[in-house]
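Q: Now give one record:
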Amino acid sequence: MRQDTHAQRILDLLRRKGMLRASDLDATNTPRVALTRMTDAGLLEKVGRGLYRLPEPGGSEHESLAAIATKVPQAVFCLLTALQFHELTTQLPRQVWIAMPRGSHVPRIAYPPLKMVQVSGEAYSAGIEVVERDQVPLRVYGVAKTVVDCFKHRNKIGLDVALEALRDARAQRKASADELWHYARICRVANVMRPYLEAIE
């Protein structure tokens, strides 16, 4: 009977949160061994070290982002990952790109592979949108901030990727020139972007 109560508590938590860390059980006095039993019984799926969710046929395309957001709540999806999220690139990133406050350590996550950029001040905090996927809030930079970040980190991802992102964002009316200038000033790349912005206006 007691095991059923534990299982019920875990299922209730999962329905509310979408994903569960083993440490989330501490507040409910539920032993962590219950997670192992439920995984063995096929009631739960382990998606990472100490990370569980309800089994889903086929999984979702945002599953890896939800797993990272659950384990590293301060991570903001950026650059190629944000471009893919906003459907602004033909590239399929091999790694998940995240921005973290300057001085952060790279999160220890076995899968998916992470690429971290450290950002400070307003360049980190500006332009964050919170989008819910699979009941998990994902922090991702909006379109204009993402395009500007691509110019700022053009040595890491390539100027061609930044230019493609800029053209597509303007063609699809996903970012206005004013928004792009706003973030270009925050990220100190207004001079770099000026000729490209003027060329497509």
